[in-house]
From TrEMBL:
It catalyses: a fatty acyl-CoA + H2O = a fatty acid + CoA + H(+). PANTHER family: ACYL-COA THIOESTERASE, ACYL-COENZYME A THIOESTERASE 8. Keywords: Hydrolase, Lipid metabolism. It comes from Okibacterium fritillariae. Transmembrane segments: none annotated. It comes from the Bacteria. This is Acyl-CoA thioesterase 2. Belongs to the C/M/P thioester hydrolase family. Residues 172-283 form the Acyl-CoA thioesterase 2 C-terminal domain.
């Protein structure tokens, strides 16, 4: 397998096809995944990179709303079409459609803004959580597990992720609550490209956002027959921070019903600055829900 960080950078380096109709057309590769489906965070980040290629350099993304329409195939490249919906004096809007075999797999709208002064406030970062250096990595926790998914999580991801209080890969320890926190950081240094860091943060934001739903019901990822799929993803970038430095992803699920669950997240840097907010609804199906703990 290639270096995971190199694979991420390759995936986010899109090719401009030169085709011009009413939209800008780009293509990008799919990263290998053990279950054969494109990772949602990958196509989100690539769709953002495509949209970023069509706006002025000083106009930065501040929000994105995307819907996952079909599972992607890791054996196929992805085509991205960008519609330049609007360019105003301060804001611009782009719609990106991601396609495989001529069918859309993701539809996303992103908004961009020129920087400027304004009112300033934020919620406080939790202050009573352990530092990432004191927590075990996925590689340390899953090194002895002989399964392709565990191997992928342990050594083939471009991000180091360390859970608080503990991960739910194989089991759910402690109280079954609908909240958790995750320290995350790229496994190596990324180029000094702020757009790349924003897109990479969108990529990483999809890894664990639905886990509070599973944690609340005592359902680990290793549950036989479990089915979890992202339905939509929204993200707001508040302030810039590098993703090759530790970030704290605080997550909670306010509701789950009807085979769906909603999770929300806040991402802080180590200085306590609120970097981004995230919301995602996902399909969550457990073979025998009666066995899941109700806390």
């Amino acid at each position: 397998m290639p270096n995971p960080l190199e694979s991420l950078l390759e995936a986010l380096t899109l090719s401009d096809t030169g085709a011009r109709t009413s939209e800008d057309i780009f293509t990008g590769p799919s990263q290998w995944m053990p279950m054969g489906r494109v990772f949602g965070g990958q196509v989100l980040a690539q769709s953002l990179m495509a949209a970023m290629r069509t706006v002025a350099p000083d106009r930065i993304v501040h929000s994105m709303h995307g819907y996952f329409l079909r599972p992607g195939d890791v054996n196929l490249p992805i085509t991205f079409s960008v519609d330049r919906i609007h360019d105003g004096r301060s804001f611009g809007t782009r719609r990106t459609q991601a396609y495989q075999n001529g069918q859309p797999i993701l539809s996303m709208i992103a908004s961009f803004q020129d920087g400027g002064p304004g009112l300033e406030h934020q919620v406080e970062m939790p202050s009573d959580l352990p530092d990432p250096e004191s927590l075990p990595s996925a590689a340390e926790l899953l090194a002895s597990v002989k399964h392709p998914v565990a191997r992928s999580w342990a050594s083939e991801r471009p991000f180091d992720m360390r859970h608080i209080p503990s991960p739910i890969y194989l089991g759910v320890e402690g109280e079954h609550v609908a909240h958790q926190a995750v320290w995350l950081k790229a496994i190596g240094q990324l180029p000094d490209d702020e757009n790349l860091h924003r897109a990479a943060l969108a990529y990483a934001s999809d890894y664990s956002i639905l886990e509070p739903i599973l944690r609340r019901h005592g359902v680990p990822w290793a549950t036989p027959g479990i089915k979890v799929a992202s339905l939509d993803h929204a993200m707001w970038w508040h302030r810039f921070s590098r993703v090759d430095e530790w970030l704290l992803y605080v997550q909670e699920s306010p509701s789950a019903s009807g085979g769906r669950g909603l999770s929300q997240g806040r991402i802080f840097n180590r200085e306590g600055m609120l970097v981004a907010s995230v919301a995602q609804e996902g399909m969550v199906r457990v073979p025998d829900p009666s066995r899941a703990s109700r806390g």
